[in-house]
Every structure is written in structure tokens, then in C-alpha cells.
Design brief:
The protein is mainly alpha-helical and 149 residues long. The protein has seven helices and no strands. The protein has a domain of 84 residues. It is flat, with a radius of gyration of 23 Å. The termini are far apart.
């Protein structure tokens, strides 16, 4: 069963290399800002980070496998592997991160708009402003602050 789960994970983590590459590019850009070229010690830091991420992939996959084994039978793992190896499964693996980002953004916008729409009611009820002008997560009133006299 573990081998099947690890196969499934490797199919689903196919974008892992792209995730590492994106992180390394971001890190390089951050280190490079203000310099004509990447300083040697910064380049070495990036290389060390990239090597560490790649070297720990197997450990990550083992931990993820434990989670999958809690939720899937061997038959289900076989079915998921077949799906992941299909054209549709491969396409899903490619676009899933993009979809997740877009869904997260839409969910945040929806939550903010919904809370803003009821903010006057909540402010009147609680006697304090619930949402700061910056939005959720930017100095929003905590439960303790709301409960304080």
C-alpha cells in the first residue's frame, strides 16, 4: 500500500519542482534587489536553500503518505493513480495550483465584501468598529477587544 500511495503522491507533487524553482527565483530576486548582480554569499544561500528543499522531498512524501493512508483504501489508491495518469488527471495536476490561488483570492474578496455589508449592524450591536479600513487581517478587532468593557 505504501508504494502505491508514494506513487500517487509523486504524481500529485509533479509541480514540486516548479514550486521549488519559483521559491528559488523569488529568493534570488529578493537577494538581488539593489545589486547589479547576485552577491556570491547570497548565491550560495540560494543554492543551500534549494538543495535543502530538494533533499527533504522524500521526508515530506513519507509524511504525506501517512495522511493518505488514513483516508484511502488500496483500491481507492489504485483508482486515484489511474486518474492521475490519465490526460485529465495530468491536466488537473497542472492547473490545480492556479485554481487554488484563484479560489483563495475569490474567497477572501467574498468574505471581505460580506463582512463589509454587515459591518454597520455589527458596529452598532457591539459598539466598536469591526473592520479597519485596510480590511481583514489588518488590525481587525479581536474577540478579546470586542468583549472588553
Amino acid at each position: 500500500m505504501r508504494d502505491k500511495i508514494l506513487t500517487l503522491i509523486s504524481l500529485q507533487l509533479a509541480p514540486f519542482e516548479q514550486t521549488v524553482a519559483n521559491f528559488v527565483n523569488t529568493l534570488t530576486t529578493q537577494f538581488k534587489s539593489g545589486f547589479a548582480e547576485l552577491p556570491p554569499e547570497a548565491a550560495e544561500s540560494v543554492a543551500i536553500t534549494e538543495a535543502a528543499l530538494n533533499s527533504r522531498r522524500a521526508a515530506l512524501e513519507e509524511e504525506i503518505a501517512k495522511v493518505y493512508e488514513l483516508h484511502f483504501t488500496e483500491k481507492q489508491a489504485d483508482e486515484l493513480i489511474a486518474h492521475q495518469q490519465s490526460a485529465t488527471g495530468r491536466h488537473l495536476a497542472e492547473v490545480a495550483p492556479i485554481i487554488q490561488q484563484e479560489v483563495a483570492r475569490l474567497s477572501d474578496e467574498w468574505l471581505t465584501a460580506t463582512l463589509r455589508s454587515i459591518e454597520p449592524q455589527l458596529t452598532k450591536l457591539l459598539g466598536t468598529e469591526i473592520m479597519p479600513s485596510g480590511g481583514i487581517g489588518e488590525g481587525a478587532t479581536t474577540a478579546e477587544q470586542v468583549a472588553a468593557p
